[in-house]
Design a protein that fits this description.
mainly alpha; 18 helices; 69% helix; globular
Length: 429
Amino acid sequence: MTATTTHTPPPAAPKAAGTKGRKVRLSFPMVLLIIAGALALVSVVRVVTGQDQLTAQGQITAALGLAVPIGLAGLAGLWSERSGVVNIGLEGMMILGTFFGAWAGWQTNPWIGVLAGVVGGAVGGLVHAVATVTFGVDHIISGVAINILALGATQYLAKLWFTNGEAAAKGGNPKQSPPVDSLPSFDIPGLSDWLAGIEKHGWFFVSDLAGVVGGLVTDVSALTIIAAVLFVGSFYLLWRTAFGLRLRSAGENPVAAESLGVNVYLYKYVAVIVSGALAGLGGAFLAMVPTHIYLEGQTGGRGYIGLAAMIFGNWRVGGLAAGAGLFGYSDALQLRNGGPTVHALLLLLVILVVLLGAWKLWKRHVWQGVASLAVGALVLVWYLVTDEVPAEFVGATPYVVTLLVLSLSAQRLRMPKADGMRYRKGQGK
């Protein structure tokens, strides 16, 4: 009797993913190369247009100061959304930070004011967490409600606390607080002057690099240094610790996280309260560093721009920092230099759009490539037939940049999978 055996071949090894589907991770040298290339483009525009303010030390210092509150708002959104809670209420939490920071700061000292601003924002985060996590309120509705309540509450309290007694005697009124003492600022002795000397020569790339580095080490507020530490610390906590893994799992798959013993409610609460505290710190920065007073409406939509920076950064700390820097730079440009310098940005936009069009054509995305080149041609005509940008457009520069950045980055985004979804404990059983 003969036995016939059939040999089934072993399963084929899975094919390696092609470059089309592979996620590209940027190494540190690649990041430096991208930054150098961007600076070289700006340097070309500076030389062609003669607008030396594009990379001036003062411009970069101002951009850094304007980027910090946007970055803190974006970092606040990152913490919240990584746990699965959408936080549209960042603007309201920043308003609470500006008000309570200035209210405590003028009565005591600015550091107490900073702490009060953080606590005020954290209270807003706690309210958002109770509404969304415990009661399951729609995240967008809760965030909008916090924005409205924060604005109304601060307007009422300003009329109550800043219009009589010592507050009124020191300059308080229904729309602003008495002035707050300045926080310390730092620079590196000798280095700032040396870099300023190199910048004045107007050399291609070298002077631009000197202006950028000089702006980053000159007259830097203590809160800016704290913000930088918070960015680094957030990256380490969220991506290098077990705590961060559990928090992010709550935003990706809370049912699976709960099955592994993760207290999903607790991590969502922690993330949203930290989110509010960071937004409050951003608001306290606005009240303590640029103006030294609380002003009604001084957040100016920075909470929403912070969310845009977070989305531009693909819910990552590094990309978020780059987005905040870009928005801060465009805001500083229109505030400091006005129409002629913003007009020079049109040439930079032409270069970027043409490069994008060439890239799309090389990837055989014909219609997108042609559309990009057509837009580049129109912007070039606008640049050639005008000498400066109208004042109405200059004031809208940061918001236009926000729209352009989001439209160009929308195709590569991946938000946390459970972001914005209602979650009830035990729903996976």
